[in-house]
Amino acid sequence: MESSTNWPESLPSNRIKAIQELTNGQVLTNKLREMLGQPENIKADIESVNGVVAQILGMFDNTLSILSPSNLNGIPHNPNNDVITTPNISDDQKSVVSDESVKTMMPVKTKRGCYKRRKTGSTRTKFTYTLTDDGYAWRKYGQKTILNSIHQRNYFRCSHKFEQGCQATKQVQKIDDEPSKYKITYIGVHTCNNLQRAQIIDEGPDPMDNSILISFGKNTTVKNNKVGTCFQSTKHTPMEGNPSLSYLKHEQVSLSDHDAPWGSVMGASQVQSYPMSKFSSGLDYENMVSPGVFSSTCSTHDYDDMAKGHDLDDILFEMYS
DNA sequence: TCCATTTGACCTAA
DNA sequence: TTAGGTCAAATGGA
Known about the structure:
Elements: H1 13-36, H2 39-44, H3 46-67, H4 79-82, H5 91-105, E1 123-128, E2 138-145, E3 152-158, H6 161-164, E4 169-174, E5 182-187, H7 198-202, E6 214-215, E7 221-222, H8 225-228, H9 300-309, E8 316-320
Antiparallel strand pairs: 1-5, 1-8, 2-3, 3-4, 4-5, 6-7
The structure holds a DNA duplex.
């Protein structure tokens, strides 16, 4: 590590930490470049490459955490940086890569339900009127009634959790006061290989840049070019998180005039318009809260209201915690 | 048969 | 003690 230790005293500690993180990232990026310069080795050691990528992404997350307004101590709190999760390797192999950190991060699975509850890791909370495709494949793993809350909270994990050790999760809950509004909490950072656009979407934009607002509909406008790149999306598991939408499996489409007004929370990805009337036919509204490509659970009514009430713009607020 | 969701049970942090 | 987060068996759809 080539980071300097002789920081000017006037520099806030969080800036120093941020610089250190970025310096680490620089080193890792150089390392990655070296790897990429030897294509013959990449095939043989793709796991190492993935590992480096994961570290770099974690570094970014840490830096963002440090520099976020809510972090006055300059303490990186990204749990995924505690562990360098190497995609495509088994747990056993993982323990070789970073045994200690894995212990601190991975749930201790000795028996059912035995795990280490996440402490305040790297989380991002968004409020949005539309449940959007954030570019990742999510899988629902739980649903809970929350105290003093009318609506249940839905829990999603990255679909690549087991195959690639991705620890990212998210929680989706309707706001009591505004039923058409959702609170989406992203916990942790993706370390999976599903990075083609997902990382750009989820990690790319400057967290301070709230201008990432995509408007779909007739006059589709995309602010922020970075987001625009996301639309050359990969076709990923469309049904993640929403069995109710399974019948739509073959309708993967790209942006079009009738695309749903789901601007992306962190950027955008392809979204679809579907016969929403099917959604309202006796299906449990709460149960339909879904992430991933089909990120909406709105009934036809809600959907229309959203479109009219918000001029097809995704309205979101973002907080870092 | 496979895969994703549902849901009750289990465990931990507060 | 309790609320929240996760697990995993059961269930259902393709």
